[in-house]
Design goal:
The complex is a heterodimer of chains A (about 350) and B (about 280).
Chain A: E1 17-28, E2 31-42, E3 46-50, H1 57-65, E4 72-77, E5 80-81, E6 92-95, H2 107-117, H3 125-135, H4 151-163, E7 169-173, H5 181-198, E8 201-206, H6 209-215, E9 218-223, E10 226-231, H7 233-238, H8 243-248, E11 253-260, E12 263-266, E13 269-272, E14 278-284, E15 290-291, E16 302-313, E17 317-324, E18 327-334, E19 342-347, E20 353-355
Parallel strand pairs in A: 3-8, 3-9, 6-7, 7-8
Antiparallel strand pairs in A: 1-2, 1-4, 4-5, 9-10, 11-12, 11-14, 12-13, 14-20, 15-19, 16-17, 16-19, 17-18
Helix pairs in contact in A: 2-3, 2-4, 3-4
Chain B: H1 4-32, E1 36-38, E2 41-43, H2 49-56, H3 58-92, H4 97-105, H5 112-123, H6 128-135, H7 150-174, H8 178-186, H9 191-202, H10 204-219, H11 223-228, H12 236-244, H13 250-278
Antiparallel strand pairs in B: 1-2
Helix pairs in contact in B: 1-13, 2-13, 3-7, 3-10, 5-7, 7-10, 8-9, 10-13, 12-13
The chains are: A alpha+beta (about 350), B mainly alpha (about 280).
């Protein structure tokens, strides 16, 4: 379990670096929750830590907030050590999963909390609280107690309470997971536009890959305490590095192939590939497989005959499960009526992405 | 769901219990306070003489205020001991929590009398404390003012009632969601500011409950002053006890008891209102 991490370059963002996580490891007793993670976050970036429960994403967030101490490694922000500071001295604010609003304080006092404890001039406080509440469209609730508010409203207050302090980095720990689907979609949009407007760096934790895709500039996918891949949503979808990534982000077909001299062979299928010789796993997205008759004719497209096993109509697209001499594929094609029997399918070989494991 | 008969049958024993052993004695006590004693016999003649006696004789007021003062001291000291202990155990004891909790509870299993006598052997003129002071040559003769004084009463009662203060305090501290503490630190509050702005306000219900326990229990205590108190530390319940015993003036004793009862009910009512005011969610 504790094999040395593969030598991958530290994923580096395009803009100036705000936060740098250097070789961070965290153990709870004998359990290794984070295994030597290195990551850079750019100023103004919306970065999402994506992973299943137990992947270590929340632990990484808590290390950056200062609620936990790393077992080894360093965290730097703005060119200074962050991990040696107590949480109350870090210019980092957190939106907690279940909001953690102070039940004994009004909405306005909750939002004012950070300003008051850090000794902001008391003449400034009401105006800044007011502005923060207006930003999340909650100004008419300033006198209410948190317990009187709905989940979505508490969420907004939690956001205002964190943002009023003008942090350089905002940490969000699954902030939308307690909301119902519709409200979650709406809050996603608001979060994204708020982040663009304020230009504050967001580090967002979620287990919901769609949410991560919708919001992020970059996604850092975690698996068992290690970074699986860090890339933009488009890149991570189009060029998954591992089979885990390919399956976690969207749906995919995994093709076990043998590569020899630029030709990959998997069952009846052969396509050109520049992957090195040997057994290789490929990812082929369902939408990359189309009916040959309708596919834009790529000169080197791979064609194959397959029978329709299952067809699910979902409105604009048909989800197919097709059988090519015992090999099963999922395909997603534009809606075109009921299909039966054998059909010819095709895919562009560049869409078959070789995976590292 | 349940038949009428079933509901009636199961509610009879508790109602009978409350009626026979609580309401009836209170009614008798209340009635006695309006009767009087003539030639060593209780006469059921309705009057207000007992109440007049209480108000006219300054001794009763004096003893009452002394009792209140002792009760307030015991409450304050138990809070000063109990709050840091509960705070430490709730926030910093880690895995030793359960063991420490048991250690706090254990004295409650030991008889009141044993704990009272323990203080007698500590504070007495040939007791542990005097022995220690003489051994260190701080004093030459045993000091007699430790025992049989208000000091000894307050010390003993504080020892006995601190667990009662500790328990509700500890419970209310345990109920504070830990992410509120994290949120406070996250927003820039030091541990000290977090204590005064988050932990203390959220522990007020436990604080009030604990203070009420200590105050009310001390108010009605008579064993403490009997064991370690002296003439200058007689408390109101000692007077009640002697009126019901050797003095054989049940009506006057009942009158004082009614007074203590009313005061206690008023206190409980008041603290319950305050606790509600400070209870959130």
């Amino acid at each position: 379990m504790t094999t040395a991490p593969p030598a991958r370059p530290i994923p580096s963002p395009p803009g100036g670096v705000l936060l740098e996580v250097r070789d961070i490891a965290k153990r709870f007793g004998s359990r290794e929750v984070l295994k030597h993670i290195s990551l850079k976050i750019a100023s103004g970036e919306f970065l999402t830590l994506l992973g299943e429960s137990g992947s270590g994403k929340t632990t990484l967030l808590r290390l950056i907030a200062g609620f936990e101490q790393p077992t080894s490694g360093e965290i730097w922000m703005d060119g200074a050590r962050l991990d040696s500071l107590p949480p109350y001295k870090r210019r980092v604010n957190t939106v907690f999963q279940n909001y953690a609003l102070f039940p004994h304080l009004s909405v306005a006092d909750n939002v004012a909390y950070g300003l008051r404890v850090t000794g902001s001039p008391s003449s400034e406080v009401p105006a800044r609280v007011d502005a923060a509440l207006r930003m999340v469209k909650m100004q008419e609730y300033s006198a209410a107690r948190p317990s009187r508010l709905s989940g979505g409203q508490q969420q907004r207050i939690a956001l205002a309470r964190a943002l009023v302090n003008r942090p350089e980095l905002l940490l969000l720990d699954e902030p939308l997971s307690a909301l119902d689907a519709n409200l979650r979609k709406q809050m996603q949009g608001e979060l994204k536009s708020l982040q663009r407007e304020l230009g504050i760096t967001f580090l967002f934790v979620t287990h919901d890959q769609e949410e991560a895709m919708a919001l992020s500039d970059r996604i850092a996918l975690l698996k068992d305490g290690a970074l699986e891949q860090v890339a933009s949503p488009r890149e991570i979808y189009a060029r998954p590095a591992t089979s885990y990534t390919a399956q976690f982000i969207g749906q995919t077909n995994l093709l076990r192939a043998e590569v020899r001299d630029g030709i990959a062979t998997s069952g009846n299928l052969r396509w050109s590939s520049n992957a090195p010789n040997g057994p290789t796993l490929f990812s082929l997205r369902p939408e990359s497989i189309q009916l040959a008759a309708e596919a834009a004719a790529a000169p080197n497209a791979v064609r194959f005959q397959a029978s329709i096993r299952q067809q699910v109509f979902t409105g604009s697209v048909e989800q197919l499960e097709v059988d090519c001499a015992g090999q099963l594929f999922r395909a997603r094609i534009p809606a075109r009526g009921v299909l039966t029997g054998e059909h010819e399918f095709a895919f562009d070989p560049v869409e078959a992405v070789p995976l590292s494991e | 769901m349940y038949s009428r008969l079933y509901k009636t049958v199961v509610s009879i024993p508790p109602l009978l219990w409350v009626g026979l052993f609580l309401l009836l004695p209170y009614a008798l006590m209340f009635a006695h306070s309006f009767w009087l004693v003539r030639d060593g016999v209780i006469v059921q003649q309705w009057n207000f003489q007992n109440y007049a006696k209480l108000l006219q004789n300054p001794v009763y007021a004096k003893v009452f205020f002394r009792t209140a003062r002792i009760a307030a001291s015991v409450t304050l000291l138990s809070l000063l001991l109990g709050y840091p202990l509960a705070y430490f155990m709730s926030f910093h004891a880690g895995i030793r929590k359960d063991l420490l909790y048991q250690l706090v509870i254990v004295p409650l299993w030991v008889s009141y009398l044993v704990r009272g006598y323990a203080w007698k052997t500590i504070l007495g003129s040939d007791g542990v404390l005097n022995g220690f002071l003489q051994y260190l040559h701080i004093t030459k003769e045993p000091l007699s003012f430790f025992l049989y004084s208000s000091f000894a009463v307050i010390l003993t009662l504080t020892h006995i009632y601190t667990p009662f203060v500790f328990l509700p305090l500890y419970a209310s501290l345990e109920h504070i969601p830990r992410n509120l503490i994290e949120a406070s630190h996250d927003l820039g509050a030091s541990p000290r500011a977090t204590f005064f702005r988050v932990i203390l306000p959220l522990s007020i219900p436990g604080l009030l409950a604990g203070a009420t326990f200590a105050f009310v229990l001390t108010l009605g205590d008579f064993l403490g002053p009997m064991l370690v108190g002296g003439p200058s530390s007689i408390m109101i319940a000692n007077i009640v006890q002697s009126l019901f015993g050797t003095a054989y003036d049940w009506p006057l004793g009942a009158t004082i008891a009614v007074g203590i009862l009313l005061l206690t009910i008023a206190l409980l009512f008041l603290t319950e209102r305050l606790e509600k005011r400070w209870a959130f969610r």
